[in-house]
């Protein structure tokens, strides 16, 4: 059976051209072809994992360390005042190979595309229910990963 083509695997393997800015044994970073601003970089693990939760835990630390390196580099290379770091997991994700967006930002740069409609909790009980549900899931996940 033919496996689905993954453009970010192809970029990582070198079979699809990209404007590479960084590579190491675990990850590759390249310019987004449709940048929010010039200098918008995508950082991908070389291994194919669709989303952040799918990433093996031992790869998460090094990938975040590389994110930090790229955030510094993009900010100073593009004479930016800061960066926006983002990951879409499934929803709004157009390429199903984990990638971290590193976007240079300036104050009043006009980035309004990220419309985040904020919602208030209905009441204190609703906030406490959400807090408890998440805390309980964390405890279950930790219990499953502890030796
Ligand atoms: P997502 O929407 O999945 O969070 O982000 C995918 C990103 O990949 C988009 O910002 C899009 O512009 C970028 N992209 C899509 N195809 C290619 C490609 O072939 N090469 C590069 N360098 N970027 C791509
Ligand atoms: Zn892939």
Spell out the blueprint of helices and strands.
Blueprint: H1 7-13, E1 20-23, E2 27-31, E3 41-45, H2 57-77, E4 82-86, E5 100-105, H3 124-145
Antiparallel strand pairs: 1-2, 2-3, 3-5, 4-5
The protein binds guanosine-5'-monophosphate and zinc ion.
Q: Whole-number radius of gyration?
A: 18 Å
Specify the helix fraction band.
25-40%
Low-confidence stretches: none
**What is the CATH fold-level name?**
HIT family, subunit A
Assign the structural class, choosing from mainly alpha, mainly beta, alpha/beta, alpha+beta, or little secondary structure: alpha+beta
What is the CATH homology-level superfamily? HIT-like
Description:
With 147 residues, the chain is of the alpha+beta class. It has a single domain, classed as HIT-like (HIT family, subunit A), CATH 3.30.428. The protein is 34% helix and 17% strand. It has three helices and five strands; from the N terminus they run αβββαββα. The chain has helices at 7-13, 57-77, 124-145; strands at residues 20-23, 27-31, 41-45, 82-86, 100-105. A five-stranded antiparallel β-sheet has the order 1-2-3-5-4, sandwiched between helices. β1 and β2 (27-31) form a beta hairpin. The longest helix has 22 residues, at 124-145. The radius of gyration is 18 Å and the shape is globular. The N and C termini lie far apart (38 Å). The model has no long low-confidence stretch (mean pLDDT 92). The chain binds guanosine-5'-monophosphate (5GP) and zinc ion (ZN).
């Amino acid at each position: 059976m033919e496996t689905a083509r993954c453009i970010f695997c192809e970029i990582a393997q070198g079979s699809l051209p990209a404007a590479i800015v960084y590579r190491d044994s675990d990850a590759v970073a390249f310019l987004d072809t449709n940048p929010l601003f010039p200098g918008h970089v995508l950082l991908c693990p070389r291994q194919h994992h669709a989303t952040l939760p799918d990433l093996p835990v031992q790869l998460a630390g090094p990938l975040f360390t590389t994110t930090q390196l790229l955030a510094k580099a993009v900010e100073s290379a593009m004479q930016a005042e800061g960066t926006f770091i983002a990951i879409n997991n499934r929803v709004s994700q157009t390429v199903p190979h984990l990638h971290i967006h590193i976007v240079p930002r300036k104050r009043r740069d006009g980035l309004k595309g990220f419309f985040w409609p904020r919602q208030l909790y209905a009441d204190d009980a609703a906030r406490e229910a959400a807090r408890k549900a998440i805390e309980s899931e964390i405890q279950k996940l930790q219990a499953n990963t502890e030796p």
